[in-house]
Specification:
Oligomer: single chain
Structural class: alpha+beta
CATH architecture: 2-Layer Sandwich
Shape: globular
Number of strands: 8
Largest sheet: 8 strands, antiparallel, barrel
Length: 259
């Protein structure tokens, strides 16, 4: 299974509310209506939360980071071959053109990077049905990552997977994490093609972390969670360039789910 991560910034002149409303009420149903033809098995919109949360609450001791994105489009296929088949079919091409034209109405293409990735679940309940829906008590924590100067993407991903992942699993109970997934970018010609079509300027990140937890633990952490955060940040400093990374809280809207 592969997935596409598409970080979104709104077109200049749009408010965040206008952007998220159009994305949810117009573009989301448009994608969902084409989901089976495009061989999608899952499509989720991740809407950045602003009200009730501050950048300092998210970043904490990491210091000044990049501005949060306005949202993230997440799309899954069973395989790369399924994605290619959908893109190359006559009807798939037509649907892709329709979606692309609609994206032009609300997405700032040059500043909205995208990439393909594989998932590495770390704290993962069965069934995998943890979703931070609009009216639930859960929030989703989104953390996009760039590696420190001197580290390759592969070196940063290896440390993240083999050193940092086990650390987060150890402190997961104290952190009250409901779920934690590492999503690792992998380079692909498809990414290059999609970026070129959108004139994307911002480079992809080497991956992102996703964590789900109860809303109250995000704004009022326990002493145990606070200590866990300190340990996590200390280890992150060994492979993450904080100033070129970003994090935020979000809610999820699921439009396609054929899992």
């Amino acid at each position: 299974m592969i997935r596409l991560t598409y970080l979104l910034r709104r077109k200049p002149g749009m408010t965040l509310a206008e952007f998220q409303t159009y994305w949810r009420k117009v573009h989301g149903p448009l994608v969902a209506g084409m989901g089976s033809t495009l061989n999608l098995i899952r499509y989720v919109q991740v809407h950045t939360l602003v009200e009730g949360y501050t950048e300092e609450q998210a970043s904490g001791a990491r210091g000044k980071m990049e501005e949060p994105y306005d949202g993230v489009a997440e799309l899954w296929w069973n395989s790369r071959n399924d994605l290619i088949a959908a893109r190359e079919s006559q009807i798939g091409k037509k649907m892709g053109e329709v979606l692309f034209e609609d994206e032009k109405k609300f997405i700032d293409f040059p500043n909205s990077p995208l990439w393909f990735a594989y998932e590495y679940p770390q704290i993962n309940p069965t069934p995998e049905d943890v979703v931070a829906t609009e009216h639930s008590s859960l929030v989703k924590f989104y953390y996009i990552l760039r590696q420190l100067p001197g580290l390759s993407m592969e070196e940063a991903q290896l440390y993240w997977r083999t050193n940092h992942g086990p650390l987060i699993r150890r402190i997961g109970e104290a952190g009250q994490f409901k779920r934690y997934i590492q999503v690792h970018r992998y380079p692909d010609q498809l990414e290059i093609d999609l970026r070129a079509a959108r004139n994307t300027v911002v480079e992809p990140y080497f991956g992102h972390a996703e964590l789900w937890f109860e809303r109250n633990t995000a704004v009022s952490p326990s002493p145990e969670r606070t200590r866990g955060n300190e340990l996590a940040i200390e280890d992150e400093s060994k492979f993450i360039d904080f100033q070129r990374s970003s994090m935020w809280f979000a809610k999820e809207y699921v439009f396609v789910d054929y899992h």
